[in-house]
Structure formats: C-alpha cells, structure tokens
Amino acid sequence: MAVIVTGGAGFIGSHVVEALLERGDEVHVVDDLSTGFRENVPAGAPLHVHDIREPLDEIVREVDARSIVHLAAQADVRVSVEEPYRDATINVLGSVNVLEAARLVGARVVFASTGGAIYGECPRPAREDDPCLPLSPYGAAKLAAEGYLGAFARLNDVSHVALRFGNVYGPRQNPHGEAGVVAIFLGRLQAGQQCRIFGDGSQSRDYVYAGDVARATVAALDGDVGGVFNVGTGIATTVLELYDACRLIAGSDAVALHEAERPGELLRSVLDGEHAAATLGFRAETPLAAGVTATWAALPQPG
C-alpha cells in the first residue's frame, strides 16, 4: 500500500521508512529538510520537500496514500519554551494539515507523540490512562494534536493511532537535539571529549531503540484499532547508568563532568507498554547494551 511518512528524512522517520520498504510497501517521504537529511532517505522512497505548515492535499492525492505516518515535528523542548508560537504552528497546525489531507482520501494516520513530555512526573511506569500534565509547550502541543487526532477519527469514522514514544535512540540520531543524550555521549567519547551530566545523574528515562520504534509504528499501521499507545521498555535507566553503558562500549575510562541541574527537568519518565503488547502485539526487544553497541558501530568514522 502507499504510505506517506512525514519527517521521513529524520532520525526516527528514516528507520520507519526502512521498515516499510523492507516489507514491500510503496513509501513516500514528506520532509522540509530543516532537521532531516536527504542522505537519510533510503533508495526507493521518493522525497517530497514540503513544510507541513502548508496543506498536503495535493501530495496525498497524487500518491493515493492509504496511510500516513506523521513524524514531522519541532522536537526540542527548549525551543518550545523559547518559541511557543512556532512550536504550535508546526506541532498543532501542521498536524491538522496532515489530518485534513488524510480525510480527503480516507487514510489512516499514525501520529508520533511523546511520553515524558505529556505525563510529567510519575512514580511508576506511566500508563495511557494516567493524568496528562505537560510541563512544556512541546508537551502541550503534542497533547493538543492527540485531541485533534481523536476528534477527526470520530468525525470521519476511521481509526487513527497516537504512539507516545519514550526516549528514542539509535543510528542517525542527531547529537544536537534535546533528547539525543546517547548520541551526545557516544559522539564525545569517540572524539575524546569530556561528557557532561546535569545534576547528580540520578534522573531516569525509558530508552527505547529506534528499530523497536519502527516495529511499533508498523504494528500500529497494520492494526484496525485506534487510540493511544505507549512505546517504551518499561525499564528505568539513570543517566549515570546510561553513561557507564556508553563508556564501556566506547572502551573509555573517561570521567564525566557534573554541571548544575537544569531547571524543570523531570526526575523520572518511564512508560508502561502493556497496552501496546496486548492490543498491537508489540514489545520493545532491544536491550540497552545491544542498542548502544549498534549506535556506536554506526557512528561516522573521524577523518
């Protein structure tokens, strides 16, 4: 079937495009290349350079899309705080453009949402029915887009899906993004530079490998159910534990530099994945050590 992947030239999007091509789908990438790269787009997937803040109707009709995986986003929490209007135009109004285009051809939408930025602090792995308490404009915009997704599904009698991702990592991750700590650590270790840890390093996150996220996306695309699903491992990993894993795989004994804790940073963000397991048949399978090893192996070699 014809599938459009918005943001398909980006880190997560390129893994999703690969997974879809591997099983024989016709895949079209929509990306404005503001943060994505042409070289991330696999051969066999035509690239439509387009900003989702503009209507996608013509592209969707041209390719006769039956499904849309919507990954294009402004994904930096800090930018959302500094530029909430820009964040909202991309993450809310851009998502409305995707939904309007999908409505024209009856396409199913799988939307990339976020776990940590929506749930806020939760003492146990967060479930989909836990309160949503976003602490940033980015989280608020993703939650608003989920609301539009549900409304469009009910109005048009289709089943759209929102996937709330944990902290995604893997090959091709941008080391300059808000959530790119694995890429940052590995990149600095490769270059022989000292890594920085903000606070005491006890903050814990749910690190989920990009290949698992791609599998979850395909599972959601193939299903006939709608709603919201967490995509994570359910395992809390502290920043100190993550750094040790990266240091071990890089063969380094470097000591990280501790700096002041960043204001407003969550102490814990872990996702319960049982709903996705029961309904979509998806569980994250890649252990942290294996995922970090694959990410290290994929780093561009210096020189």
The best one-word shape is globular
Q: How many domain regions?
A: 2
Distance between the termini: 42 Å
CATH class of the largest domain: Alpha Beta
Structural Rg: 18 Å
Give the uncertain stretches in residue-range form. Answer: none
Mean pLDDT: 94
CATH fold field value of the largest domain: Rossmann fold
Helical residues, percent: 40-55%
Please write the string of helix (H) and strand (E) elements.
EHEEHEHHEHHEEHEEEHEEHEEHH
| CATH architectural designation of the largest domain | 3-Layer(aba) Sandwich
Q: Give a short account of the largest sheet.
A: 7 strands, parallel
- Distinct helical segment count: 11
The CATH superfamily of the largest domain is known as NAD(P)-binding Rossmann-like Domain
Strand order of the largest sheet: 3-2-1-4-5-6-11
Number of separate strands = 14
Beta-strand residue fraction: 15-25%
Global structural class: alpha/beta
